[in-house]
Amino acid sequence: MFSSRLLWSQRPNRLSALAAEKHRDGVQVLDLTESNPTHAGVAYPQAEILAALADAHSLRYQPSPRGLDSAREAVAAYYCVRGTETHRQNVLLTASTSEAYAYLFKLLANPGDEILAPRPSYPLFELLAGLESVNIRHYPLRYDGAWHIDFDALEQAITPRTRGIVVVNPNNPTGSFLKRAELEALDSLAARRGIAILSDEVFRDYTFGEEAGRVSTLVGDRRALTFSMSGLSKIAGLPQMKLGWIVASGPNRDEALDALELIADTYLSVSTPVQIALPRLFALSKGIMEQIRKRTASNLVRLRESVHGTAATLLRTEGGWYAVLQVPQTLTEEEWTIKLLDEFNVLVQPGFFFDFESEAFLVLSLLPEPAAFTEGLSRLFSVI
Hints:
Elements: H1 14-24, E1 30-31, H2 46-53, H3 69-81, E2 91-94, H4 97-108, E3 114-119, H5 125-131, E4 135-143, E5 147-149, H6 151-157, E6 162-168, H7 180-193, E7 196-200, E8 226-231, H8 232-235, E9 244-249, H9 253-267, H10 272-307, E10 313-314, E11 322-326, H11 333-344, E12 346-347, E13 349-350, E14 361-365, H12 370-383
Parallel strand pairs: 1-12, 3-4, 3-6, 6-7, 7-8
Antiparallel strand pairs: 2-9, 4-5, 8-9, 10-11, 11-14, 13-14
């Protein structure tokens, strides 16, 4: 009766089932996977946010498939303030980055076509692509003290049905940014093969230190058709506001935006109040972002101090909200996470959730409140 796109198992994995059991039993779990800033003790300017959403202009509906001019102008200004010139005509608003992916898969691919995505990375692409009847193929990121794209493997993964290459910049969970040499090689490869680049940049404002060769955004002059995505979820720590965007660059940009406008016009999913509030939400985001930056940076320092002298290794991270620990293979990743949760009430994620190709890695969020994070690390390293 139902589409084969929906035939995915919804049976919880062992870790999720155990976490749910702990919750039902009222056990206090130290959640070192917390990535929702509204649950992490961030202080929001409540009155100002609510006032921004109370604008009377929100009561008048004037649907604009690409988004209201004022909102797209605010997105363009966000990039200009950070040193990258773009214009509102290059911007199309979506309800989220996930919706932006869905629009781009619709734009670029026919059923059965392929999109290349990095491994390891956030485990969402297969689901989004499956809903569009598109296939995901992976290309590897390699680690040798720093993360980098394996370009030989990337090129070998390209087939006649490849329509796009996803980059996550910085990557989630590795925290690695593209470097200028990598962008040059990627842009050249995509242009030569007639493939679009899809750049997910939601964590670009969260960096640990500066690096001269780091690429913060793909917005700008590109040889390949390129789509840069971001949104309020991370920039303002407001995932519930449901506003994201696509910025198009490179050849065929205008034709791509015209087609995206047609797709967006079919759904008209972006709410008017959040579009009208966007300039003020951007202004308010500065204080929210600064809190999150301080939190993730201080938790990373705690993690570095805690891992020193243990059997674990902290992999290099350059930005984002996550950190990756390599732990002894005396247990599998699943066994490590189950042991930590079952015996010590500490929740972390196994590397295979993010498609790490080998054992044994644990992924921790750097967003939890400091007291919980510190106690969670104490329990974790008492085991390792």
